[in-house]
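Homework help thread (please don't just give me the answer)

Our assignment gives two proteins as sequence + structure token strings and asks us to describe the second one. The first is just a warm-up. Here they are:
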Amino acid sequence: MQNPSPTVSCRRCGQCCVKGGPALHSQDLPLLESGIILRRRLVTLRQGETVREDISGGLDELKKEIVKVAGQEQSFVCGFYDRTLSSCRIHVNRPAECRALFCENTTAIRKMYSRERLTRADIMDTGGALWELIAFHDQAFPATMAVSLARKASVGQRQARESLLELAETEGHFRRTFLEKTGTTPEELDFYFGRSLARICSPFGLRLTR
């Protein structure tokens, strides 16, 4: 008896959706410009953050920022994944990574994974006051510094923990003030300023509270 043909198309099992939302690439700009994907659906992972690489499966520090579809309720599950129906809410208009990903043959996704990834500068106007605030935030609260302090704090260095705690508290105040002054929805914060320092440092087992 001849063996059945191997699967050659996505079974839409949802496993990739549960593991995380896709990073966006230049091909995805029309989805943003048309409003299919709104900024409140996005999260910026800044340079220096420790993240799980979907292709290698390991943890690594980002060499350059990326913008991804945010997860659901601070989980990794893609924000467009409908758990009840086990389906994507924007499947017809899904991003480029989703189109390229086939779990039984990852050749296509490997080829395009790190190419032409979008950053905030590709998505928004870099000439206005909002961009100045973003630039100030990146300079005042760099993810690279937070991760460095978190590594030291995680092995018991008290001064590093105190410095990180102060930095996280100040950044939290910045984010709250921004919301109060601008009326921006809280869901958009993670796109404009990336994840809070407290969340960035969570992989190190630290609770940044006094």
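The one we have to describe:
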Amino acid sequence: MSYIILVVDDSPSMRKVVMKIIEMSGFPVNQFHEAGNGLEGLECCREQPVDLIVTDLNMPGMDGLTFIEQLHQDPDLRQIPVIIVSTEGRAEIVDEAKDLGVVEFINKPFQAETIAKTMYRMLGVENDVRNDGTSETPDF
């Protein structure tokens, strides 16, 4: 099985970096979707299926926390797991994200192995991520 991942970040180059790192991790991706802010992210989730969201916090238009709040208010979208990947690591921001239901917060820069393990855990599937950041595709 492979997954549909939405990457939300206002920097196109950072979205590409995140997607490349996820690919390098060996995590089974069927398709990536991209959004430049929370508004675009919500639109994407409403238009097509998404299995997991990786979002930044600091974005114009709609920031990451507002995006997550709006996502969780929508009964059709609230079950989508969200991972925050950000340089923002202040305790009050992390606490606010946790209050919104986010359980995974990864600080940039991050390792391929870290994102893969986190994604597997968020989706509740087994994995075999090796120390070199690659993985064996698990039997689903």
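TA reply:
I won't write it for you, but here's a hint about the kind of observation we're looking for: Residues 128-140 have pLDDT under 50 and may be disordered.
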